[in-house]
Amino acid sequence: MKKTLFISGPSGIGKSPIDFAIKNDITGINPYRLREHPRNSEDYFYGNWLLKEDFLNILSIHNEKFDREISNEELEWYPKSKTLFFNARGTWQILPLYKNFKQEGLFKTEIYAPALPALLQKNSFTNIFGEIFFLLLNPASKSILEMEGNYDELKLLTTINLIHAGEKKEKILGRINSLDKEISAWQTILKILDKGSVLEIKNWKYSEGTYLDTCLNEKKLIQFQKDNLVSAKDTILKASKNELKDFFKDSEQIQDLDEVIVNSRS
Fold first, then answer.
1. What pTM was computed for the model?
2. Domain spans of the chain, in order of start
3. Is 142 exposed, middle or buried (0-12, 13-18, 19+ CB in 10 A)?
4. CATH fold label, 2-30+99-255
5. What is the pLDDT of residues 57-107, one digit of tens each?
6. DSSP structure string for 151-184
7. Residues 206 and 231 sit within 8 Å (Cβ to Cβ)
């Protein structure tokens, strides 16, 4: 059996903390962010920006061609080698998937939403992930499909979430400016996937900022964050009617964590 959980949502919504609630034996599928320098010592999926040209040269040597039906200036899909390049807010990312294509089991991934609508209609891409379940975390009171072009609430709440997470002003502006593309992608994804394969949770309250309390010492902060994460996990399982329970640790396992889950971005 192969099943993959896709987690998506606006910046600052709290996707990163959820990684701590995912079972240790779930295989993470993570793209490498191609930058000039790593952001910090915990930038585990950093890749130097020169790697894109090196990868493309290797693919060219092996006569690998990108899929012309869906590839464009923001996206390149190479079906033979199962290699994906996509541009997320001005930063190219690379996701080599050949190894995952041969594996079985449960997987969890986050891929920039605007890259997905075209890819999810390609068997050469979806076959890699087996059964797909798409989880969308939405801080707003209305579904993405019900907003009818008025995204003010979503943009305001995303701005607040990023401020509470300690994000810098210029980065907040960039992420808010990219929301229109993401919203369009989420709307398409919610329509093209089977109803049983998607779950949108509205009024999502567990953003990155909710894990932060600068008045607490480290020991109390860790406990505060674990309690918040348990609540977030329970919200997902309740909304999914426990369909996603195989992906998540139980509450006792989360309470066994002994490290800070979220640090301020500032």
1. 0.92
2. 2-30+99-255
3. middle
4. Rossmann fold (3.40.50)
5. 888 888 888 888 888 889 999 999 999 999 999 999 999 998 776 678 999
6. -HHHHHHHHHHHHHTT--HHHHHHHHHTHHHHHH
7. yes
